[in-house]
Amino acid sequence: MAKKIAIAIHKGGVGKTTTAKNIAAALALRGKRTLLVDLDEQANATKGLGIDPLTLPGTLNDLFADPNRDPGSVLVATMVEGLHLLPAHPDLAKTETGMALQRADPNAPDPIGSLKILLEPLEGYYDFIVFDTPPSLNYMTINALAAADELIIPAAASAYSEDGLTRTWEAYERARQSYNPRLRTPRILITRMKRTNAAGMVQEGINSA
Description:
Distance between the termini: 31 Å
Number of helices: 8
Oligomer: single chain
Order of helices and strands: EHEHHEEHHEHEHEH
Mean pLDDT: 91
Radius of gyration: 17 Å
Number of strands: 7
Largest sheet: 7 strands, mixed
Helix content: 25-40%
Shape: globular
């Protein structure tokens, strides 16, 4: 059974995608069968691995559109041995809108949990599954929290990160209470820090959280 790690924060520009790619690649280089799932409509993790999502025969978005499709049919091998990618596509924005409408319909199934269901056929093939999420707490990010065993919150030691940290922690609490009780207490990874007194104070606050 794969261990699933979500990389998420309600803020952009803190190295979230870089963190997700590096963790996934490092695990693969240690001999672990690893899958990186790109949940961001910007597809930065996909593009960062040298893959153009517009040229692919299938992406994650196709799995959401057709839950009966074999998820193995859209997996992409990367240049890192042992690392596979489930690529994103700009049309994930439309899927996100569809999830919001679905959640508002009392007669429709809850879209939270759909990612977990889609990935179940792949769990036996991987040791780790890493989720790169959008820089917001949208349905893709919520689905990642619903599916994950662990949450890593990348953050800069900056006052501008505090709101994103607070909102992401609140999302974790809701996820654990409502639909994923096994989700472990998040770990905060400081990805950038300036040598200033203000940055030092923020780091101390993060360390004591």
